[in-house]
Amino acid sequence: MSPNQKPLTIAPATGKLAILTPGLGAVATTFIAGVEAVKRGMAKPIGSYTQMGQIRLGKRSEKRMKKVNELVPLANLNDVVFGGWDIFSENAYEAAKHAQVLDKDTIEALKEPLSKIKPMSAVFDKNFIKRIDGPNVKTGKTKMDLAEQLRADIRNFLKDNGCNRAVMVWCASTEVYTPPTPVQATLKSFEEGLRNNDPSIPPSQIYTYAALKERVPYANGSPNISVEVAALQELALEMATPICGSDFKTGQTLLKTVIAPGLRNRQLGVAGWYSTNILGNRDGEVLDDPGSFKSKEVSKSGVLSDIFSAEQYPDLYSDIHHVVRINYYPPRGDNKEGWDNIDIFGWMGYPMQIKVNFLCRDSILAAPIVLDLALFMDLASRAGMRGIQEWLSFYFKAPVVKQGLSPEHDLSVQLIKLENTLRFFTNEELINHLGLTHYGVDEGENA
Ligand SMILES: NC(=O)c1ccc[n+]([C@@H]2O[C@H](COP(=O)([O-])OP(=O)(O)OC[C@H]3O[C@@H](n4cnc5c(N)ncnc54)[C@H](O)[C@@H]3O)[C@@H](O)[C@H]2O)c1
């Protein structure tokens, strides 16, 4: 334990945890099916840091590695109960079939647990998601009424399923880009907006509000503007509840945050980065609408401008042409294909190119992130953390950070932050990777 560190107490993970997802589509059903498969020994939780990750404790010479889920008290998968909301009334078995991510045999083998998960009726507004519409939708006089209904859903779900706590992870479609207005500036103006049906409040903010009012930690898996707004950050602090976001970092952006820091660390210049994708699932259909695409474009674009700071490195990055395209192409379904062409330059300005062709599976990459976020947000809550959880930036394309701070995008730095937070939670020594003690240098207080 570091000298100035105060011991932290974490409430044990006893009882059942509800993982609630607005949206029971491709990502949510792949996540739920995967956990059920793991519980039955049908699959391994590949891609999940909470289930497979190991963390070094102490000095390298101590050779002390621990599994993440043995270091921190995370909810056991057998104690997790799934629930969600969707505008379609298909249960999770039907929705998984519809999503066509998993093979038929796997879905059939999991029919029993998946069929039990029936979506609660959604808060939905066609003004914010243009390309789809469905029947399983709440009605209410005001947005505050709708928020109250969601709060009642949460309470009823906990009661009916014998759960003593819950977390919410947004897995519903991407909304039209909606930058905050003065309504989202303070909690007071936001609540007035809810009561007055202010048109600038999208459904995702109503879910976030409802979750926080019930002290349910909220993670934003989409590029929606929800936990980003000042009013909801204020509420998270007031309710002493953790929040994090935004937009699961899965395919192309995951690779960007590995490659781009590498180029910058070696002081290689970048003239352009052209990213394009073909995608044929319902997410692709929704993103085919320019308003929803704008949300994605904003969350995907910030990564490079932050990593390649033109201000800090004018000779290397002052004129980068960064283009991001997502093309809806139904034959591919959930199997997205992404191409990146990166024009770089090196010693004396000589140009070079990097080509990346990632044939990925969108929901297969996203599912373990949902699991990790749910378990870590529950941990954060039991550890008394509140407000923005920047240590979970590892999972997001556009990490939410306190106003005035710049987000950290480099995946390896994000992992160091995450690991040190887990060490901090467990009163283990933080690791600074200095390593000079091994070479006879006195590190003093740094050791
Ligand atoms: N790799 C990935 O798959 C990935 C990566 C980053 C972010 N995301 C984001 O995750 C989200 C889910 O992706 P998906 O592939 O599962 O999409 P999907 O279209 O398969 O599922 C989304 C579901 O949300 C439902 N929905 C829409 N509005 C709703 C509302 N207001 N309340 C409740 N349900 C609502 C839809 O009916 C649909 O069933 C999207 O926002 C997507 O951008 C996905």
How would you portray this structure in words?
The radius of gyration is 22 Å and the shape is globular. α1 (26-39) crosses α4, α7 packs across α8 (187-195) and α11 (252-265) runs parallel beside α13 (290-307). A 7-stranded parallel β-sheet has the order 5-4-1-6-7-8-13, with helices on both faces. A 4-stranded mixed β-sheet has the order 10-9-11-12. A two-stranded antiparallel ribbon has the order 2-3. It has helices at 26-39, 49-52, 68-71, 92-99, 104-109, 111-115, 143-160, 187-195, 203-213, 230-238, 252-265, 282-287, 290-307, 314-317, 362-382, 411-425; strands at residues 16-22, 54-57, 64-67, 80-86, 120-121, 163-170, 218-220, 242-245, 269-279, 321-328, 337-345, 351-359, 387-388. The mean pLDDT is 93. Helices cover 37% and strands 17% of the residues. β2 and β3 (64-67) form a beta hairpin. The chain is built from 16 helices and 13 strands. It is α/β, with parallel strands linked by helices and 447 residues long. The site of nicotinamide-adenine-dinucleotide has 37 residues, from α1, β4, α12 and α15. Residues 22-28, 85-88, 99, 122-124, 129, 132, 134, 171-174, 203, 221-222, 247-248, 250-251, 281-283, 286, 362-363, 365-366 line the site of nicotinamide-adenine-dinucleotide (NAD).
